[in-house]
Amino acid sequence: MKKVLVIPAAAIFILAFLLPACSGKKTEKAEVADTSAVVAPVSIDKETQLLLKDLVENGDYVNSREFPSLIKASVVYESLGSNILVIDMRSKQLYAQGHIKGAVNKRFEDLPDYFEQGIKPFELDKIILVCEDGQVSSYATSLLRLMGYGNVYAMRWGMSSWNRQYAGEGWLKGVSGKYEQNLERTAHEKAVPTGMPLLKTGLSDGAEISAARFSSLFAEGTGNILVDADEVFANPRQYYVINYERKDKYDDGHIPGAIRYKPNATLGITAEMATIPTDRTVVIYCGTGHNSGFVTAYLRLFGYDARTLKYGNNGFMYNWMKKDAAGLSWLPFSDADIHDFPVVK
Q: Which of 57, 130, 131, 259 has the fewest CB atoms within 10 Å distance of its CB?
């Protein structure tokens, strides 16, 4: 039987820094976790502790100012021809029909080998991952950053922001106000911390556990990391829904039953993560699905069945967001986010 450590949550509290909200607004004040309350000891598996320790020793990316690592299409376009690499993660067919000049086409599953054997990643200024909508690339960027590749970015909005021909089949098609009348304003409390998933790698070294977990996630692919609004609203109680937003946005209206977890005060903090159930599918959502993609990767690394809500709030309360975009600094996708940058075949 595997040894389990029982340690006070405060002893493993990781200092969190400013994390931009999913709205993309960087001027808001950081929300600091309240550690004054007495928290019951949490049972944390030894392998989980070693994984946490290894991630912290390698830079504690999720609690840095670089999390999440997103880049605008306009910045990518202006950087073409410089010391950057664009990796297009879409299918071979979509890549062949048109892609960013100089971009290479790589599957998600092949990224680790490509970074280790195909390129010298640290000789590049930036490595930009691109997909259809920016959410799968956010997930992949999060994993690669956690692996230590500190120059990887996901292009916000994906190819939808590069050229209108892609936006028509991507973000312009995905935004919806379909469930605006189903939202609630009732606040829901987190459960009492009980523990985190057992990793069961059978390893006793933090670096080896990390390598095993990353290898497992890349081998799994991305087929089950996204969930759409229709699935969630059909039966929201089926999921453990996490609203990863500012409190004022949560209070303005959220998915029924959704529980708010503070940005910059959740990941890496076992007292917070231990409130997330290990026996249910966890759905994380934010304004655009980008930040939640980063969060999903982190939670899956620790064994949670986590998924990101495709398009975030844009996918179910789009008109609501547009109406109060200035008041709550929402980030509804719009024509202003679409460029007319060229593609090559």
A: 57
